[in-house]
Write a structure and sequence with these properties.
alpha+beta; two-stranded antiparallel ribbon; 23% helix
Length: 274
């Protein structure tokens, strides 16, 4: 009985930690809420098939992320991007290997231009995209999108940026000329639930998720890009608070049962030793 109550306390504590993280990120752009999933611990007794006895407690089985799209809201920034549909923005991340770059993935499209003309996230990691080939065809290997390249290496010449639903970036230069700056790459995965959450809305691929498939926006089932918009967190504050009350009740109930069992054992020991 003590072990059963103890596993209940631990499971409820884990559940509250997941809920607290959801609440803390309710205003984080592109954040996806998580849910703790539990399974029953099955014990065994003399004469029974091993593992067939129920009622031995609870165990945290998995922390699963809900990939449902959050609401989109309009902003005033031309470099704020939201994905309407499937896919993740792809960002480069130095991995310590000269000449190579790791990748992170996110639905958070709060972007800016750095001093060199590269489109970067709040951590300074560059947004990756495809080059525009001859005839406005999208192709080639994904690489950091640097608008200064389209402006002759002079970021000061950039007067405006326009991004269409397929992620194609048009750069308006001084003098009224418009040039192509690349096409935003989106990533899809065989198993989105296998992605590892690093912090906030930033994710990394794992063996469970499989390697990313990078494609232009609006193609092969990928979502479309909406310029001047951001995706909010898919956290329902009311539902999370109600869930937290339930988890707190479960924690308190198991904690009281654990205390009662401890007092019963102490009383029995005192009776025996008299």
């Amino acid at each position: 009985m003590i072990k059963t109550s103890l596993t209940g306390v631990l499971a409820a504590s884990r559940d509250m930690a997941v809920i607290a993280n959801n609440l803390a990120n309710a205003n984080t752009t592109g954040f996806k809420r998580s849910m703790a999933q539990f399974t029953e611990i099955r014990g065994s007794s003399v004469g029974a098939r091993p593992g067939s006895d129920a009622g031995s407690g609870a165990l945290t089985q998995d922390i699963r992320r809900n990939s449902e799209q959050g609401g989109l809201f309009i902003t005033d920034s031309k470099l704020d991007l939201a994905i309407s549909g499937n896919g993740y923005l792809v960002f480069g991340e130095p991995n310590g290997v000269p000449g190579e770059m790791g990748m992170t993935y996110s639905r958070a499209g709060k972007l800016t231009l750095d001093k060199d003309g590269a489109i970067v996230d709040s951590s300074g990691n560059p947004l990756l995209g495809f080059p525009i080939l001859t005839g406005n065809m999208i192709g080639g290997q994904p690489a950091p999108i640097n608008l200064a390249n389209a402006a002759g290496g002079k970021p000061i010449n950039i007067q405006g940026v326009s991004i269409d639903a397929k992620g194609v970036i048009s750069v308006m230069l001084t003098g009224g000329k418009t040039v192509m700056g690349g096409a935003i790459a989106l990533a899809s995965f065989r198993n989105e639930d296998g992605l590892k959450n690093i912090t906030g809305a930033k994710l990394k691929a794992t063996d469970l998720s499989g390697q990313p498939e990078l494609q232009p926006a609006g193609s092969n089932g990928m979502g479309k890009i909406q310029q001047g918009a951001l995706e909010g967190a898919n956290v329902d504050l009311t539902a999370e608070l109600m869930h937290m009350v339930q988890a707190q009740q479960a924690y308190n109930g198991n904690a009281r049962a654990l205390q009662t069992n401890s007092e019963m054992i102490r009383s029995a020991v005192d009776t025996i030793t008299r």
